[in-house]
Structure formats: structure tokens, C-alpha cells
Write the C-alpha cells for this entry.
Amino acid sequence: MSKFPRAYLSIGSNLGNRKENLKKALLEISKEIKILKTSSFYETSPWGNINQPWFINAVIKVQTKFNPCELLDFLQNIEKKLGRIRPFYMAPRIIDLDLLIYEKENFNNKKLIIPHHGINKRLFVLIPLLEIAPRLRDLKSGKAYREIAKNLTKKSEQIINKIS
């Protein structure tokens, strides 16, 4: 077993050259973190604030030397470097990097909640996550993410298309 923890991150973009934005983010992440697996890219309809351009999303599995809060800071610094601004909640964005899962930890402070609070509600996260980790289970409920995604698909209007 490695001494470095593993984590899952989501990456997304809906402004500018979306694919290129994801590739730049992956390059920046790889400067400090080992990327173990990368899902396909998925074009997805917006969720939450639906009056904005469509996204391209993916999920990556990484091995990191950072603790959860350090990892979040690292990801937010990459977002700033790549030009992300936050004029309002769920605004369109050049890049969005989220820490989804960190080892088998449940973590909650003012700055960070792990597992990410939105995993179980967002097909644009679950589908790429399941592509690279099909047996993963929710740490809080113990339910298989595959079952959560199946149930969510029945009631979701979100459109998700694999593009690469």
C-alpha cells in the first residue's frame, strides 16, 4: 500500500475552449499530483443555474501528498491561475475543480466537506466517476454509487453525452 492518499476530483468547464481548459487543468494538477486514472470527457447540460452554456466534465483519480485542506487550496490556486472568477454562486466558469472523495474519509469543516455534498445529486459527476471506479460506494450511506446513479437517472432531466 502506498503512503500517499488517493482521491477523486471532478473537473469541468463551460466557458471558452472547454476541452482545452480541462487539458490545461490536468497539466497543472499533474505538476504536483500523480494522476492515476482519467475518465472520458462528457458534455453535459447545466445543473442548478441552467441559463448558461453547456459543460464538459470529467473525473480523475489521483495520488497526493496533500491533506484534504491542502488539496483544496491547491485546486483553488489552479482555478485562479487559469482565470476562474466567482461573480455569483454557480456562475459560468472557465474551470471548476472539486475534491469529491479523499481516501475513505468523512471530513467536514467550514471550508470543506468530504465526500463532496453534491455527488449523490449530480449525474455529471457520478457517470464519469463510475467509469473509472465502478465499485465505489458512498461513505456515509454505504450505498453503491451505481445504484444512486441509476435512481437519479430515472428522475433527472440532465443530458450527458460522452465525447471522448
Remarks:
- Strands lie at 6-13, 34-38, 42-44, 55-63, 96-102, 107-108, 113-114, 160-162.
- The first strand starts at residue 6 and ends at 13.
- The chain has one domain: 6-162.
